[in-house]
Amino acid sequence: MEKQQFKTESKRILDLMINSIYTHKEIFLRELISNASDAMDKLAYKSLTDDKLAVDRAKLEIVLIPDKSARTLTVKDSGVGMTKEELEANLGTIARSGSLQFKQEMAKAEGVEESDLDIIGQFGVGFYSAFMVADTVTVTSRAAGSEEAWCWASSGADGYTLTPCEKAEPGTEIVMVLKPDSEEDKFEQFLDPDELDALVKKYSDYVHYPIKMERTRTRQKEKPADAGEDYKPEYETYNEWETLNSMVPLWQRPKSEVKSEEYHDFYKEKYGDWEDPLAVIHISAEGAVEYKAMLYVPAHPSYDFNARDFEKGLQLYSSGVMIMDKCPDLVPNHFRFVRGVVDSADFSLNISREMLQHTRQLKVVATNLEKKIKAELLRILKDDREKYEKFWKGFGLTLKLGALADYGAHKDLLQDLLLFWSSKENKLVTLAEYVSRMSEDQKYIYYASGETPAQIARLPQVERITDKGYEILCLTDEPDEFVMQALHELDGRALKSAADPDALPESDEEKAAAEKKTEENKDVLDFVKEALGDKIKEARISKILKSGAVCLSLDGPFSIEMAKYFMKMEPDSAKELQGGRILELNPDSGAFAALRAAMDGDRERAKQYAELLYHQALLIAGLPLEDPVAYSELVCSLMN
Ligand code: ADP
Q: What is the pLDDT of residues 383-402, one digit of tens each?
């Protein structure tokens, strides 16, 4: 029988596993048991919709068989099993799901040598970890609903064989020939029933199928009826199948009895993360719908979180049976990073997905969970700011987009959770914190957009606001201005762009003075408009500049920042938005005086000044120059 080669990447991992220096080799058992449990979940789940797969739940179990004389440990399950193709695909390739590659990259990013398996070992690499303890691994599997069985065997990196074989019942049986003992490693421990018992209790206690092992016990023989005075008790040994795990899933246990380590291990094992979650929310709800839930807020987005095909959702169990792997309706979009499990006997086992969506129970649970998640995030925000900022770094944008979505329907729920950079505090602040610092005379909550807070601080249009001592929220994410528009106000204080001409209240004298200035400089404004033609809609004496000479604004409901966003999304809209450009000029600036002086003497030069000012405004706004070369030539010619 010819050997098949492993796919390259699998081979590398396999090498790592075989030569592992990893100290917790014992985790291989947890990995195999977890796979077995998944396989039975899959079978139970499939049988809900496939009449041909009648499943006797009482028969779903995992069996461990240590055999000292053969030096083998067998892990057996009665799950879905694998077809020939599945054996090839699942055990011949390790990086199939992409998650391993991700883990490796992360391990690298964390500065861990690939040869150092400590980190990799922590989250395990599933089936392949068997090779940490075994020289030869044989997997015999029969897929549920099929008569055929196949045997996959491998002694490590040199490849594997796949041969037809017999198997009486569907399911999978994994036989490991353990490595010889060495100074450091006593592989024989994995044949010791007490040791195996302890490992199951340590790592797999919550697995909701029985993990059974035959144990030899000793008992006192019954005292014969005719036993005399000097009768000494006699003992005998007998064999008995014992269930090693308590089978109570973590989420069914009282919160007070679960250690945070157990929560974390469960999370890392189940969701393939290497980092502990930021928060665990364990709920035991009574009332209209009774349910248990165990939710996790990850410490960072998973590798596929921002992918288009990312599927949100929680696993839904009904009385210990998984009925849906990712139930999307249990978590709202704005909390779609949350992972976890909901278990409720109030959901019918045989309910279809379509029906499920419309059940009252689902809505009740989803509404409750949303509240609990928000409360937990608020608690972190209050008690552990550093942790919250870590959360914000990974999922802040998700919350902001949530506040925007559905025409702002969720803004009231989310606004307390949002953070923005404060020009005054030089750190991220909440809107409530901003409001608490507002002075009596400050009417609005101010914000301004730009690439970075430092750049925003230097924008000519924010100067008059910061000079008053007011705080500005610096918006650096694309959707931020839209978020501000959606939020509109907080506690009756309107949110206002620093670039808005009405951002500061104006006295009647100020108004009159501004009008007078426009009147006085009408000739300059007309000249600039004529010189620039269609590039601008209008030249205007600015109300928003203090010492700066120029800036650009837009007529209509959109700011320059929003316009930039639209232009990126829909380049066709660029023309339309361009039509509304206003060139704002500061009549008290030196540049303005130079322009006026040139108009009286050298009108060609004055035209060039107008061009120059327009280009400065584009640059400040972060907009592309239409013709950078022409601009450069213009500057050079003015220098001559
Ligand atoms: P993971 O479990 O992280 O996907 P593994 O390497 O442990 O990675 O397993 C690869 C795949 O092989 C599993 O996703 C599953 O489809 C299949 N598999 C492993 N063990 C079993 C089993 N006992 N029964 C059925 N399928 C299994």
A: 999 999 999 999 999 999 99
